[in-house]
Amino acid sequence: MKRKFYLCFIMLIIFALIPASVFAGGQAEGTSETAEKPQESAVEKPLTYWTAGGDFYKAEKIAIDSFNKKNPDSPVIYNPIPAGSSSEMIIQTAIATSTAPTITANLEVFFANFLAENDVLVALDTLPGFNELVKSRSSEGFMDSIRSADGHIYVLPQMWTPALLLYDNVMLKKAGFDKPPVTYSEFNEFASKVIEMGDCIAIDFDPIAAWWKLGYYWHTFYMSAKGNVQELSKDGLDTKSDVSVAFVEFVANAFKKGYASTDRDRYKFNQHSNVGCMACAGSGAPKGVMAMRPDAELTLAPPPVPDFIGTNEGSWVDASVKGLAIIKNSGNVEKAWEYIKWRFSNPEFDLELMNKTSLLPMRSDLMENPVFKDYFETHAYMDVFADFVPRSHSVLCPDKYDIYNAVKKALWEPIAYQKKDVNTALRDAEIAVQAVLAK
Amino acid sequence: MVFENTINSLKEKYGGYRKNVAATGSGKGLKKMTLIAWIIIMPYILWNIVFWLYPNIVSIPIALFETSLISAKAVFVGLDNFLDFFKREEFRMIMYNMIRFGIIYIPLSLVISMMLALMLNSVKNVALKSFLVISYFLPNLTAGVAYSVIFQKIFDPHSFLTKAISTITGTNIGWFSDTNIVLIPMAIMIVWKSSGYYALLLLANISSIPDSYHEAALIDGAGSFTRFWKITLPMINPTFVIVVIFAVTTFFGMFAEPLMLTEGGGPMLASYTFKMEIFHQIYDRMAVGYGAAVSLVAGIMSYVLVLLIKKFVGKEV
Q1: How far is CA B253 from CA A287, A357, B124, in A?
Q2: Within a domain: residue A100?
């Protein structure tokens, strides 16, 4: 009986190992053969499109329904991206299991570049009419900010949302400030007055936030001081410049003196009136705050800068950039491009997106184009964000996720919990980033 | 002493479960019983083969490669994925968290589930008992994401509970932001979810203890605690060991709670778990081989723990 059991067990292991070995072996053989197979069988597939969810879906639905009305023979079949902890996770799982749609939305540029490195996406700038489309949207100035390392463009941004600091006017006034602080010293002065108010903090800076938010902080504060320069590239993270050191010292000081708190649930700018400012506010943030605190008075501003910089006028900030990409081998590239061109040629659909989501599209003519005039007249704060659209961009480094996570562990959390001094944290962050890049 | 004698005499009279079966079951009847038992447990065995054993075996060769979810390239790296994992801070923190979580969760869940089981056993009204049984089992069916949101409200810094504790202790409590206490609310959440289920397992065994044992002990003057300690606990040992195994291995399955409440295992990895690491490697970093290696380490560790529990706690099972 025992022998039979062991025999069955060994047989089971062998049967399990055969497909697994084929999987591993097949992968090791190379890309070309496996990559071409789906193309042949996918020619007859319908044109499928995964849009972002929620209000974004509602806005996109208007465009797609309108397109389908005009093209009843080849309609776009659309669905929101299936639920998951992140759309990136869902999309890559779909690609791995050959269930990806032809067009997918909600792709960050760095992630699209990562997918492009794996030969999964279509280079949009090789498709006919790309340059004309970009020109018609007054978007030529954005192209360098979304170009992949190979020089091609793989994602067409639907939204381009700058990040700013959102101040509570009441707090500013109580602290004796008419306008938001410009330098770190001014901010610290404001912060010291805020904490005197009792159970208040000056800045909602979350050290255990998700990687993208921590990236947002660094990128925005960095560019506010340095202009159109990326702190993170394929060569690594700038941890040595005066601006970087001053920024980390500023944050460390904030946690040390209680201007910021690790108790992230106690001090939430959008829920409670005990926080001076929110360190990472996209264009949807004011609406979100007003929904929770209808009496709140808000002011938007770029982040403060080190004292030796002195001014944040004309500064650049980080932007959350997400857009559409076409998955290779779907057999529908031409049809997909036809839809994308049609959708992006019509500013009315950008307006729908703004109305439904409070997100801004990638256009430098937002304030001049008559289509958007009424929108900015009736939606408070949005003009400030629109002003920053041409002066914002996202970090493109394909290792962004790993790097920001490494920096979170090596620098932000130890700084916030006061486990490391600034120099040690910066040195550890540099080592951690280099380790990521070495892989 | 008199009580010990009574127990011994009763044990001699009734014998253990196995003795009873051996004594009463004829050869044919026993075979039929065995067949029925196999049929009953077969779905569970199949489930484990298909969803536990098979994936674990399949992941062995995958763990030896460096491969991504979407890339067609795979590089043979031998045991590097395993060695790399053992060297990382994440591994040390997972081990540390497992011990800390176990110290809070295991005794708490065992005590509460035992109390619930004893309480349910004392309920004589059938309708009330059924209602309570269903009520206690319901949390076990609740999705982790759903109850995490509810407990997030309960442990919110502005909630009644937190304010009350802060008033008593004189300090502000950040349940999910303090590295020293973040596992306490998580343990409480999982106790809420699992103790009803454990209680039902224990109840099934407690109900099968013959009343005569307790009656005899009562005549001998044994109190409630003595009867529990000398009769109930030894008699439910097999089920108790299963419950202990479930409790000890709970940490290996923790995922929704850190994902929902602490941005995936923070602060400073203080609530990081095996499943978070597997998820992080496979879905965030797309390192399928590495994720497979971590899952194998987790699988082997949980298996070793089960063997140790059976060896030291479940000698009679």
Answers
A1: 38, 37, 36
A2: yes
**Average pLDDT of span A392-416:** 86
d(C-alpha A43, C-alpha A413), whole Å? 50
Instruction: For tokens 């995922």, name the residue.
Output: B255
CATH number at residue A119: 3.40.190.10
Q: For residue A136, tell me if it sits in a domain.
A: yes
pLDDT band at A220 (very low <50, low <70, confident <90, very high): confident
- Which pLDDT tens digit goes with each residue over B156-188? 998 999 999 989 988 888 899 999 999 999 999
Mean pLDDT of the A342-371 span: 92
- DSSP code per residue over B125-189: -HHHHHHHHHHHHHHHHS-HHHHHHHHHHHT-TTSHHHHHHHHHHSS---TTT-TTTTHHHHHHH
Is the CB of A264 less than 8 angstroms away from the CB of B57?
no
Task: Give a yes or no: residue A96 inside a domain.
Answer: yes
Tokens at B297, concatenated: 């380490």
Q: Do A413 and B267 touch (CB under 8 A)?
A: yes
**Measured between CB atoms, does A207 come within 8 Å of chain B?**
yes
Domain coordinates of chain B in residue numbers?
A: 13-63, 79-312
Q: Which domain holds residue A156?
A: 45-161+319-393
Q: Is the pLDDT assigned to residue A245 strictly greater than 70?
A: yes
User: Long-range contact list for B231-234, CB < 8 A, 24+ apart?
Assistant: B231/B7, B232/B118, B232/B206
Q: How far apart are CA B279 and CA B270, in angstroms?
A: 17
Across the interface, do A27 and B65 touch by the CB < 8 Å criterion? Answer: yes
CATH number of B79-312: 1.10.3720.10
CB A23 within 8 A of CB B68: no
Of all residues in chain B, the one with the smallest CA distance to A439 is B66
Is residue A73 assigned to a domain? yes
Domain count, chain A: 1
ipTM above 0.90, yes or no: no
A93·B54 Cβ contact <8 A: no
Closest by alpha carbon to B309, among B249, B252, B232, B254? B249
> Where does the pLDDT of residue A198 fall: very low under 50, low under 70, confident under 90, or very high at 90 and above?
confident
Mean pLDDT to the nearest integer, A23-42: 41
Residue A1's pLDDT band (boundaries 50, 70, 90)?
A: low
pLDDT of residue A91: 87
Model confidence at A45: pLDDT above 80: no
